[in-house]
Amino acid sequence: MKPIHLRLRRACAAAAATGVLIAPAAAGSASGASVPGRSAAASTVAATPTPTPTPTPTASADTDTGFTPLTPAVAAQLDAAVRRVMREAQVPGVTVGLWAPGKGSYVRSFGVADKATGAPMTPDLHVRIGSETKTFTVTALLQLVDQGKVGLDDHIGDYVTGVPNGDRITLRELAGMRSGLFNYSMDGDFIAQLQADPERYVAPRQLLDYSFKHPVQFEPGAEFDYSNTNLILLGLVVEKITGRPLHEVITQDVLGPAGLRSTVFPTSPALPVPYAHGYTDQTASGKVEDSTRWNPSWAWAAGEMVSDLQDLRSWARTLATGTLLKPATQAERLKTTPMDIPGAGYGLGIFDVQGWIGHNGSIPGYEVLPVYLPSAQATMVIALNTDSQYKGQEPSTLFGEAVTSIVTPDHVYPGHKPVVPRTG
To answer: Does pTM top 0.70 for this prediction?
Structure first.
């Protein structure tokens, strides 16, 4: 029986943000819907399959910003790298977006959004964003900090009863993944029940019950350990302080001011149209299944939301630059503590990995990687419709490394480390 994850898995997450060099491509090809540099709305028709371009010499990154100009030759390199990862990791469909001032843009989709019909992947499709949801939940909390309604060093026990070590764990430690609370999505009973009925609704308090039956893992603040339990608690804090459901708070106080019109915090398994179907091997049988209609309620404040490429592009910059928060609060958010990955640190619901700031997201059937590189004012968004790992690696990580190896060789996401096999 394999666990259901919201990845990052443990240390951004032990395997989730760990890089591996891309091996030579297997035989095969991927069809692509390619409209570089145009809006998502303009990129809705699949192009006919094209052969992999003849490799060209790798372009040098701009010495001022560390970002390689997105010339046609570089776009051809990116096309080839994306197709190679798709073949190796057996990814049905992926969209990659890159934008950097003065360097051009690259927006292309490859493969299929629906394996049953063969409908192409296109840049305008909605996808579930998994743990990227954490960035919205923590933003809602930090807005309340700005309003003086809550303090980061308040104890969770002041807001939610029955939390182990609740009189000692702070909201800061929850947001920074240093609480020591057991990750409910690693609980055996939770996994069995969700795999038996993935369309069932699970309430936030039920999720806490799965966690709290386990002993705490370590003293508050002593270690970094990625736990979805932390975000369920922060969601409950936001609800208690505001007196409103979390989905309403995020919709009205975060999505609205951020200008995100295609991002939703759903209250049902339904996806906004148009959407990509999702495929996962996190099933009771271990076989790949269509998880599009699985109920994401079990992820709630830790991973329930849905978005699209252009909104994720906008949000990556908003998140990294802190335009919805006071500067002092954003500075607190960006104070990172080390993870077990060289060149990586985790702040308050956000990471800095080799200079790329943001958060990845994974939920059965989908993965996203929206990140921002301040030194180049560059944004990268990768969205795909599977979370099935390849040799212990998240496919979004493999795409991220393949892309950044070309465009930001001094800031390769997530850096290089031996493969960590799937253990959970």
So the answer is: yes
Distance CA 245, CA 274 (A): 26
> Average pLDDT over the chain, rounded to whole?
87
**Residue 412 in tokens:** 């390769």
For tokens 């009925």, the residue is 197
pLDDT, one tens digit per residue, over 87-96 is 999 999 999 9
Q: How far apart are CA 404 and CA 383, in angstroms?
A: 15
What is the four-CA torsion angle of 228, 182, 210, 296, rounded to 10 degrees?
Answer: 10
Whether omega for the bond prior to residue 421 falls within 30 degrees of 0, making it cis, is no
What is the distance between the alpha carbons of residues 99 and 382, in angstroms, rounded to a whole number?
Answer: 12
Please list the alpha-helical segments (H only) found in 15-148.
72-89, 133-146
CA dihedral 182, 212, 295, 177 (to 10 degrees): -30
d(CA 392, CA 383): 19
The verdict on whether omega for the bond into residue 370 sits within 30 degrees of 0, i.e. cis, is no
**Alpha carbon distance 123, 125 (integer Å):** 6
Contact in structure between 112 and 125 (CB atoms under 8 Å): no
And the tokens for 13? 């997450």
Backbone angles phi, psi at 323, to 5 degrees: -70, -15
What's at 334, amino acid-wise? L
Residue 28 above 50 pLDDT? Answer: no
Q: State the DSSP string of 364-389.
A: TTEEEEEEEEGGGTEEEEEEESB---
